[in-house]
Design brief:
By secondary structure, this protein is mainly α. The chain has a domain of about 210 residues. Helix content is about 70%, strand content about 0%. It has a two-stranded antiparallel ribbon.
């Protein structure tokens, strides 16, 4: 006779802690400021989350493959200024490329993705071919990207002035909407869907998990580890480039400081979203939830008038709690 399995509340809470944290945070903020629970605020949070979701998805690939990437934020800054410089109106008195005609909005977007892809491939080659630890390799790339972005902004005729006066087609990418759904959110959702398909429905996705879980075993089973490392860093770079372009279009401006700290927020979102720092574990849904948690927290604390410095305290506590929960889950399984 089959016995009914008993509902384990502790196990349920452990497996769904991330969503419980999100719910508690929303309830607390709404209790203090009921106006927080409005369509306008939720729309703002989702728009702000869109760029960070794209960046976090790129970071997720690298983490699942067993590596680390600290260059995401600086790549966002570099690609934001490159895309912005190509999107300025022809009448702008500080137009970066004075003789360049106005380009369709998708052209700066594609170029930003290509630049990010190239930097990602560079990361992959340094890690896989030169055997430089990913932490140090990507830290070096971050400094390289930041230096190039500042040199780019300092060139004539810009002289380190913030970019602006973008074409309507480019600005529409970041602020336009389709039936009241922002384009930037639709782009983020398209990335989520494509990444989920790649991760769960393709051989390549399964190989990324295998390499992150046990690189030596993956090699023995015939998986091309070099290819996987190059691909994960390349796709991460492409997503960082897309994020940089979206950030420039959303804000209508651009400086080399764009994207500062995005790489740390992306790593944190991946960790609290269920990705294992050791590789081989992670999923799109958890990462998206992790990004939204941080944005609700940041927006909510600002909304109720608390100092922005409390955001760092809250983020640190959430990360510690998420890692502790993950360790307990791993211990129970073994």
């Amino acid at each position: 006779m089959k016995t009914k399995s008993k509902f384990d509340f502790r196990l349920f809470m452990m497996n769904n802690a991330i969503y419980a944290i999100m719910l508690v945070m929303i309830v607390l903020v709404v209790a203090i400021k009921p106006s927080f629970f409005s369509l306008r605020v939720m729309r703002d949070i989702l728009m702000q989350s869109s760029v960070r979701i794209v960046v976090a998805l790129g970071c997720m690939f690298v983490i699942i493959s067993g590596s680390a990437d600290l260059s995401g934020g600086r790549m966002v800054g570099l690609t934001a200024v490159i895309a912005g410089s190509l999107a300025e109106q022809s009448t702008y008195y500080l137009k970066y490329y004075a003789n360049l005609p106005e380009l369709p909005g998708f052209v700066p977007l594609l170029i930003a993705i290509l630049v990010g892809l190239c930097f990602g491939l560079f990361n992959g080659l340094v890690v896989s071919k030169l055997k430089v630890p990913a932490f140090l390799a990507t830290l070096g790339t971050a400094m390289l990207a930041f230096g190039i972005a500042n040199l780019y902004m300092d060139a004539e005729p810009n002289n380190s002035q913030p970019l602006g006066s973008y074409t309507d087609g480019f600005k529409a990418i970041g602020s336009g909407s389709f039936h009241d759904i922002p384009y930037i959110l639709l782009i983020a959702l398209a990335c989520v869907a494509l990444v989920w398909i790649l991760q769960n429905k393709t051989v390549l996705g399964k190989e990324i998990f295998a390499v992150g879980g046990n690189m030596e075993a993956a090699k023995v089973s015939g998986i091309n580890v070099l290819k996987i490392q190059l691909f994960t860093f390349a796709i991460a770079g492409a997503l960082y480039g897309l994020g940089g372009c979206l950030e420039a279009a959303r804000t209508g401006s651009g400086t080399a400081s764009y994207g500062t700290g995005y790489e740390l927020d992306a790593i944190a979102a991946c960790i609290i979203g269920g990705c294992s720092a050791g590789g081989g574990i992670g999923g799109v849904g958890g990462v998206v939830a992790g990004v939204i948690i941080f944005n609700i927290m940041s927006y909510g604390l600002t909304f109720i008038g608390l100092s922005p410095y409390w955001q760092y305290v809250a983020k640190g506590l959430i990360i510690i709690a998420a890692v502790a929960i993950d360790v307990r889950k791993y211990t129970r399984k073994h």
